[in-house]
């Protein structure tokens, strides 16, 4: 069972924890209205708010979390977007962060993509683009409770095999599944 302690500012590193320069950086990506910022708030103990329509949030916010006993991660909540390939401000920001095209940005170690379980078809377009970058990707299959109420049948293991990455069912709004999400892949 993973223990998570999040702080909006720099966390106090536990003994043996990596230094700030060694902190893992994770990009949090997803379509608008998938619960991405809700997950960010849960992971980082913040109360960030965002507008819920494309083009209104065009900056990334950063939070830090201590996962387990000594792993500090920096989470970059990127603007919601539908595709990386679009010529839109939010897509350019995401490409810059994920592709490390800016000399001012350190690269990300992994991508956490939030997918709406009720709308897989649209959300998996972005997921496919993210997988093409060659970074480790974890899919947070959010709103599984709503999908089940709508009679949708989801098989996270089968989806994981198809995509070639971890897929973890969650309900970010209620904090369900976050321990599994934060568990290392080999645990």
Helix-strand blueprint:
Layout: E1 4-7, E2 24-30, H1 36-44, E3 61-67, E4 71-77, H2 89-99, E5 110-116, H3 120-131, E6 137-142, H4 144-149, H5 156-163, E7 166-169, H6 178-182
Parallel strand pairs: 2-4, 2-5, 5-6, 6-7
Antiparallel strand pairs: 1-3, 3-4
Provide structural commentary:
With 187 residues, this protein is α/β, with parallel strands linked by helices. 27% of the residues lie in helices and 22% in strands. It has a 7-stranded mixed sheet, with helices on both faces. It is globular, with a radius of gyration of 16 Å. It starts with a strand and ends in a 5-residue tail after the last helix. The model is unreliable at 1-20 (pLDDT under 50).
Strand numbers in spatial order across the main sheet: 1-3-4-2-5-6-7
Low-confidence stretches: 1-20
What's the SSE pattern? EEHEEHEHEHHEH
* Cα-based radius of gyration, to the nearest Å: 16 Å
CATH architecture: 3-Layer(aba) Sandwich
The level of helicity is 25-40%
Mean pLDDT: 81
Strand runs, count = 7
Give the number of domains. Answer: 1
**Topology-level CATH name:** Rossmann fold
């Amino acid at each position: 069972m993973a223990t998570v302690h999040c702080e909006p500012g720099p966390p106090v590193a536990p003994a043996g924890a990596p230094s700030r320069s060694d902190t893992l950086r994770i990009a949090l990506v997803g379509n608008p209205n998938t619960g991405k910022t809700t997950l960010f708030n849960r992971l980082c103990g913040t109360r960030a708010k965002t507008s819920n329509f494309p083009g209104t949030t065009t900056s990334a916010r950063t939070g830090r979390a201590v996962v387990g006993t000594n792993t500090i991660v920096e989470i970059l909540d990127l603007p919601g977007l539908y595709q990386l390939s679009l010529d839109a401000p939010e897509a350019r920001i995401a490409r810059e962060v994920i592709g490390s095209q800016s000399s001012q940005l350190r690269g990300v170690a992994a991508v956490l993509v939030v997918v709406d379980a009720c709308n897989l078809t649209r959300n998996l377009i972005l997921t496919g683009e993210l997988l093409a970058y060659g970074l480790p990707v974890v899919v947070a299959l959010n709103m599984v409770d709503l999908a089940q109420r709508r009679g949708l049948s989801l098989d996270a293991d089968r989806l994981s095999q198809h995509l070639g990455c971890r897929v973890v069912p969650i309900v970010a709004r209620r904090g369900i599944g976050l321990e599994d999400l934060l568990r290392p892949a080999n645990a």
